[in-house]
């Protein structure tokens, strides 16, 4: 099954109307705003300065000598303080052992007769691409066949390669298009690789570093969108043009098939192999949540008549439409959030008879879906907890059967091999139980067979997970998960870490967080996950309620949860810390500027912070459907109300904050964090800043860097909130 969402993994940071119907909840506790003198103490007013639109624009020069010197100075200060803190070294080393553990589950990807896996550990920091038969994979200690040693390649080529995946040609999977990033940036280099000879293909398809979209058509042809030169990219920095490139010819000679608009987000082309049939697609995304889909037949293109904001995919001749908005067609209205199915051939012929594979309810949403050989699967959320269903096709439609999974869990499901099998993989975990990998079958009634288990990376005995609901400013009930020791004293004494995201339809589900367990929960801290609007926890309406001019609703939700924790005496403002990255980093910046009295410490990672210029920086233009367009006066006015960089004020004491970012982040510009820190330092604030020179938007290029960055965060939070080191 092909999901028509090109480059989404690279584009995603991690749709406006009335708030959705709230889920059924117990009566909410009263919310109380509490202030402490420590967080509201006023600073001396700074002297008036000449009005300059942005005196720190020079920090947007990513690799300039002056900005990098500034970064080095800030890094040295942060390293000196946090590396010297009690427990830092031990935590860093422990997290490194967790990330490098040879006992962790090797995530499987089946291609033909092999199970492939990409693996990193202490002896292979960049990673190994390897394979085994299924029988071998199931063994406790499989004997892997090495396909590519990325560390050896990096050493030979003197490049810090970071693996960005392999697109291998069906059905033999003997040729792959490798995507290799320098230092973890989204932009990658393309190389053609032979999995039989286990070497790069001499004279094969190659592309220089770019945010390319490349897919196989056949062994001698690819669909390619890349940086062809001036005018070939969208304002978001992604391909605007799709070409057909033949083996042995120069890229300049590739045939242009389709051109999008400069204001589009991305355009891509792809051949889908669907149960023995080949379908060629051209996809044009005018914005982050909209897409035009065209079937290619030679030089002719047939546009699929569908709602522009509906997500489309095709499986076994069925067109699947996941609706973001209610859709009235053929006299029937289908609800937003529904998943519809209809024969593609009938649909192209003008018929509009559909069945609903997923029917949303006020407290449910569709998390993911995937096709098998003859059956179909959905992963659904009910009050943010996962359930899995198999949909078996019969003469009378699909029969829906629930798969046996654990309550209060998060489940990731994917096809074993949709071309040949009705088997599927299930990866299941929750806040206190590590991941379990099982292999199930849609045609058998037996429970899925457990194949692998992750070890427990922290001590979870005595921990209790509860779900609660806070009441937001507009009366909406907002869920959150609290993980803490059983019988937690409600006396305000517990250092508490609250995390959130609230954007781009992304849901924060009850998953196992080894670093948080080792770095926070084991030390006696309380961990809280906020399911605020802007995410996908309750479907499209939950997301759409916090778009553009309604963005404040997401921030009100987060504030309501924080106030609820204080009102319930789980913690106090002085002991309440918050952490978020990317869009969650923007959330942190808003919390700092709107409610500096409510938090004792903040960790702000790879953030957006200058919402007046974000659309001019790297991939920022692709997110205007989420946040708004600063060049439109009415949308600029809404952005100005919460843009953290512009809302910093002299005379306010802000919570002490650790800002982290990456020089190699080519998605969210490091200038956001740099400029925010420079302005805060100008205002006399006490803070820390650390910029990793590698790592891309993930902040770290390998397990060593990841462990270091996480140790910085948890050490900082423990120090500020009074949580002793172990």
Automatic annotation (TrEMBL):
Record carries keyword Transport: no
Gene3D superfamilies for the chain: alpha/beta hydrolase (3.40.50.1820), Prolyl oligopeptidase, N-terminal domain (2.130.10.120)
UniProt keyword Protease present: yes
Identification of the protein by name: Prolyl oligopeptidase family serine peptidase
Organism: Polyangium mundeleinium
InterPro entries per record: AB_hydrolase_fold (IPR029058), Pept_S9A_N (IPR023302), Peptidase_S9_cat (IPR001375), Peptidase_S9A (IPR002470), Prolyl_oligopep/macrocyclase (IPR051167)
Signal peptide coordinates: 1-17
Keywords from the UniProt entry: Hydrolase, Protease, Serine protease, Signal
Residue intervals of the Peptidase S9 prolyl oligopeptidase catalytic domain: 520-722
Pfam families (alphabetical): Peptidase_S9 (PF00326), Peptidase_S9_N (PF02897)
Lineage of the organism: Bacteria, Pseudomonadati, Myxococcota, Polyangia, Polyangiales
Residue span, Peptidase S9A N-terminal domain: 45-437
């Amino acid at each position: 099954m092909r999901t028509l969402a090109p480059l989404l993994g690279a584009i995603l940071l991690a749709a406006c109307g009335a708030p959705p119907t709230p889920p059924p909840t117990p009566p909410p506790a009263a919310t109380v705003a509490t202030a402490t003198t420590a967080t509201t103490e006023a600073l001396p007013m700074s002297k008036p300065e000449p009005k300059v639109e942005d005196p720190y624009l020079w920090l947007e020069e990513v690799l300039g000598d002056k900005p990098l010197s500034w970064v080095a100075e800030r890094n040295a200060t942060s390293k000196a303080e946090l590396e010297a803190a009690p427990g830092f070294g031990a935590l860093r080393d422990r997290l490194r052992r967790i990330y490098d553990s040879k006992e962790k589950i090797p995530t499987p990807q089946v291609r033909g007769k092999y199970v492939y896996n990409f693996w990193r550990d202490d002896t292979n920091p960049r990673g190994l691409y390897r394979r085994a038969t299924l029988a071998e994979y199931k063994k406790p200690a499989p004997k892997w066949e090495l396909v590519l040693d990325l560390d050896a390649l990096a050493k030979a080529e003197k490049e810090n390669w970071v693996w960005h995946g392999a697109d291998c040609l069906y059905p033999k999977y003997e040729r792959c298009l490798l995507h290799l990033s320098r230092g973890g940036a989204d932009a990658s280099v393309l190389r053609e690789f032979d999995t039989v000879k286990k070497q790069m293909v001499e004279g094969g398809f190659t592309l220089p570093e770019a945010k390319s979209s490349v897919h196989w058509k056949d062994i001698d042809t690819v669909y390619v969108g890349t940086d062809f030169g001036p005018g070939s990219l969208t304002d978001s920095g992604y391909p605007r043009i799709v070409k057909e490139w033949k083996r042995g010819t120069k890229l300049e000679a590739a045939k242009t098939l389709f051109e999008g608009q400069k204001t589009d987000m991305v355009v891509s082309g792809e051949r889908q192999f669907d149960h023995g049939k080949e379908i060629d697609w051209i996809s044009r995304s005018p914005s982050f949540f909209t897409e035009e889909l065209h079937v290619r037949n030679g030089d002719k293109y047939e546009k699929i008549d569908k709602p522009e904001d509906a997500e489309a995919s095709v499986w076994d001749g069925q067109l699947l439409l996941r609706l973001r908005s209610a859709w009235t067609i053929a006299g029937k209205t289908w609800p937003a959030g529904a998943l519809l199915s209809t024969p593609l051939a009938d649909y192209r012929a003008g018929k509009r008879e559909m069945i609903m594979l997923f029917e949303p309810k006020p407290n449910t949403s569709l998390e993911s879906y995937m096709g098998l050989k003859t059956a179909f699967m959905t992963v659904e959320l009910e009050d943010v907890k996962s359930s899995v269903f198999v949909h078996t096709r019969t003469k009378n439609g699909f029969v829906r059967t629930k798969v046996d999974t654990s309550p209060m869990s998060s489940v990731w499901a994917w096809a074993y091999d949709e071309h040949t099998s009705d088997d599927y993989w299930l990866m299941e975990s929750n806040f206190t139980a590590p991941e379990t990998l099982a292999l199930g079958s849609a045609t058998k009634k037996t429970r899925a067979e457990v194949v692998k288990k992750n070890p427990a990376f922290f001590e979870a005995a005595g921990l209790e997970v509860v779900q609660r609901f806070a009441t937001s400013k507009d009366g909406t009930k907002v869920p959150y998960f609290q993980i803490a020791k059983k019988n937690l004293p409600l006396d305000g004494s517990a250092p508490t870490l609250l995390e959130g995201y609230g954007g781009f339809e992304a849901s924060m589900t009850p998953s196992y967080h080894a670093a948080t367990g080792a770095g926070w929960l084991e030390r006696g801290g309380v961990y809280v996950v906020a399911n605020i609007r802007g995410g996908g926890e309750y479907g499209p309406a939950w997301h759409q309620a916090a778009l553009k001019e309604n963005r404040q609703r997401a921030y009100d939700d987060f504030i309501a949860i924080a106030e609820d924790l204080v009102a319930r005496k789980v913690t106090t403002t002085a002991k309440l810390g918050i952490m978020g990255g990317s869009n969650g980093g923007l959330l942190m910046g808003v919390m700092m500027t709107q409610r500096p009295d409510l938090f004792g410490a903040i960790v702000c990672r790879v953030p957006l912070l200058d919402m007046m210029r974000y659309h001019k920086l790297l991939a920022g233009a692709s997110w205007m459907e989420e946040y708004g367009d600063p060049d439109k006066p009415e949308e600029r006015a809404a952005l100005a109300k919460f843009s953290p960089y512009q809302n910093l004020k002299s005379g306010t004491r802000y919570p002490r904050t650790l800002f982290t970012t990456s020089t190699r982040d080519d998605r969210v510009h490091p200038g956001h964090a740099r400029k925010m820190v420079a302005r805060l330092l100008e205002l006399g604030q006490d803070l820390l800043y650390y910029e990793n020179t590698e790592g891309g938007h993930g902040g770290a290029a390998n397990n060593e860097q990841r462990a270091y960055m996480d140790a910085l965060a948890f050490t900082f939070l423990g120090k500020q909130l009074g949580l002793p080191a172990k």
